[in-house]
């Protein structure tokens, strides 16, 4: 009867834990009970129940596929990026043909030069009186003639495409809403800062201060912007329709090495050229504000430049989990 009870007790414990058990009998029983003339060694207390955990393979979690924007939003983003790419292509072409518009270009027999000259004739003609600072006149004595010609023609870029550039850049304000609504993966704060700096350059500086409109630095700024944006918007539009271009992907995350410094430094020096030449003693509140922008532009460029370097490592395979040609995580 005792053995039966002990067996039932162990089986009940096994059922309670619902685990396989192994009964280990100790050679030195821990407890003895003296019941009259009989000494009972309860084997139940000598038994140690050891859990045996089964090694069951864990089910692999299926990665959740990130949902894209709704069809209507996707169509809108495709149209927006295509139109933006076309707009910046106009700015890029206008800048190039203005820089190539010279007596040599008009007399050349090269087809590409002839095409550029014809396109230049379609652009608005320069009407702003060119005022070259003394420093430029001094540099002209030391620079090669062809560079001097390009610098002189660069003073006409604003007269031909300045307002158009400002309008096209203004449409980029929609990208802040795209980020706020979650239609793209960009940060609203980062996007807002980048858009604001561009708008400050085209409306707050170039539009308000005529001396900046004939500054060759304006041409270098717009040239850097337009090359960057044509690549970026074309890349985004093709990505939205499911086409991956390794060439565009490489250009998107490589050209910034040159275009970010030239673009941002041109913005900064354009701001500097808007300040009164009489010196800080005659600065107004707005002048001091622009002077502070010139100072903070450089650490901003440093932060953005390093951010793009990190992004390049992730996207082009130098970082973790990405290789050249893979679909980017965000737009």
Automatic annotation (TrEMBL):
Entry membrane topology: Multi-pass membrane protein
UniProt key word Transmembrane helix: yes
GO BP annotations listed: fatty acid elongation; sphingolipid biosynthetic process; very long-chain fatty acid biosynthetic process
Pathway assigned to this chain's UniProt record: Lipid metabolism; fatty acid biosynthesis
GO molecular function: very-long-chain (3R)-3-hydroxyacyl-CoA dehydratase activity
Keywords: Endoplasmic reticulum, Fatty acid biosynthesis, Fatty acid metabolism, Lipid biosynthesis, Lipid metabolism, Lyase, Membrane, Transmembrane, Transmembrane helix
Record-listed E.C. numbers: 4.2.1.134
Transmembrane segments: 75-100, 230-251, 258-276, 288-305
GO cellular component: endoplasmic reticulum membrane
InterPro entries assigned to the protein according to its UniProt record, in alphabetical order: Tyr_Pase-like_PTPLA
Catalytic activity: a very-long-chain (3R)-3-hydroxyacyl-CoA = a very-long-chain (2E)-enoyl-CoA + H2O
Highest rank taxon of the organism: Eukaryota
Compartment list: Endoplasmic reticulum membrane; Membrane
Role this protein plays: Catalyzes the third of the four reactions of the long-chain fatty acids elongation cycle. This endoplasmic reticulum-bound enzymatic process, allows the addition of two carbons to the chain of long- and very long-chain fatty acids/VLCFAs per cycle. This enzyme catalyzes the dehydration of the 3-hydroxyacyl-CoA intermediate into trans-2,3-enoyl-CoA, within each cycle of fatty acid elongation. Thereby, it participates to the production of VLCFAs of different chain lengths that are involved in multiple biological processes as precursors of membrane lipids and lipid mediators.
Family the UniProt entry places it in: Belongs to the very long-chain fatty acids dehydratase HACD family.
The protein, known as: Very-long-chain (3R)-3-hydroxyacyl-CoA dehydratase
């Amino acid at each position: 009867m005792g053995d039966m009870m002990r067996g039932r007790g162990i089986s009940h414990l096994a059922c309670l834990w619902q685990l396989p058990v192994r009964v280990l009998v100790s050679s030195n029983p821990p407890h003895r009970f003296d019941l009259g003339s009989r000494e009972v060694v309860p084997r139940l207390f000598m038994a140690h129940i050891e859990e045996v955990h089964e090694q069951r393979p864990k089910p692999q979690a299926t990665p959740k596929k990130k949902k894209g924007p709704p069809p209507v939003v996707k169509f809108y983003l495709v149209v927006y990026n295509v139109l933006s790419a076309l707009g910046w292509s106009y700015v890029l072409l206008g800048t190039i043909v203005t820089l190539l518009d010279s007596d040599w270009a008009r007399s050349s027999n090269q087809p590409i030069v002839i095409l550029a000259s014809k396109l230049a004739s379609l652009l608005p003609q320069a009407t702003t009186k060119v005022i070259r600072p003394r420093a430029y006149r001094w540099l002209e004595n030391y620079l090669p003639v062809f560079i001097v010609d390009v610098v002189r023609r660069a003073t006409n870029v604003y007269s031909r495409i300045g307002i158009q550039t400002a309008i096209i850049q203004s449409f980029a304000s929609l990208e802040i809403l795209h980020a706020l609504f979650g239609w793209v993966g960009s940060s609203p704060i980062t996007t807002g800062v980048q858009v604001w700096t561009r708008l400050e350059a085209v409306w707050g500086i170039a539009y308000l201060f005529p001396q900046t409109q004939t500054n060759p630095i304006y041409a270098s700024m717009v040239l850097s912007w337009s090359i960057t944006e044509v690549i970026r918007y074309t890349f985004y539009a093709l990505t939205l329709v499911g086409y991956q271009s390794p060439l565009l992907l490489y250009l998107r995350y490589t050209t910034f090495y040159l275009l970010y410094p030239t673009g941002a430094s041109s913005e900064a020096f354009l701001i500097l050229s808007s300040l009164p030449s009489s010196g800080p003693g005659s600065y107004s509140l707005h002048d001091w504000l622009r002077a502070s922008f010139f100072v903070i532009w450089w650490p901003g460029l440093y932060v953005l430049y390093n951010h793009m370097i990190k992004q390049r490592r992730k996207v082009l395979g130098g970082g973790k989990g990405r290789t050249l040609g893979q679909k980017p995580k965000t737009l």
